[in-house]
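#onboarding

Welcome to the new folks! Below is a worked example of what a typical request in this channel looks like: someone posts a single protein sequence, and someone else replies with the predicted structure as tokens. Don't worry about understanding the tokens yet, we'll cover that in week two.

Example request:
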Amino acid sequence: MNDVFTWDRSFLDEVESTTVESGMLLWALGGPSFALRTPELLIWIDPYFGGTPPDSPPGLHRAVAIPIDSALIRRADLVLSTHAHIDHCHDATLLPIAAQTEAKFIAPSTSATEMRRFGIDGNRILEVAAGSRLTVGAAEIVTFGADDPAEKGAVSFVVKVGERLIFFAGDTQDTPLLDVVRAEYTLDVALLAYGEPWYMSAENLLRAANRLQPKTLIPFHWDIWRGFSGDLGRFFAVYATAPHPFAVKVLQVGDSLTLSA
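Example response:
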């Protein structure tokens, strides 16, 4: 049994039934997990609808609600996984999506290997690496490298619809690999992982964001693990010490952000 109750299905109904005529609509699902609606697609990014993992270190507990019961999901066109850690590639989350939808799974080799081990049909898994480019409908998905010390096979993604671009960093640290993203794209939104000791400190996060130069920075992962979380007060204190070329927006579980065309 999950150690955090799941919301009733009205929020899932919102995610599955809301449409956009242009641009993109992003929902925060807690921790590293997001849902992205385009005019044609519903994309799940690093979905994790599990509780505290059984092999967690002492003092770690899931600290935010699980907003969706994956057994109820009936709409998914694409699922993106940045790497194979359980909160980015979770069998109990992904298997119902595979069983109940026609979704394709886009993943680096580490996640793809796990997905096949879970029992997901290999024909539905699109294995990617840095430099991969996929076009699905009007959405372009471009894969970039990532520097995750705990998993060398991790990647990050840019999703582009029309002139709107969102960068999903996974658990990458501040790295010159982000300069490659900046050299190619002017981002509307960059999502970067905040929280010590596993993710970036406030200083490292801001250095990474300054590499990317998005219009808006959204810190994520700060909320999900008690004992391994990010202090937003400290982040904003550090942010205020110097001018930055981007705004900061915080999304709590269930919040959404619209990127108009």
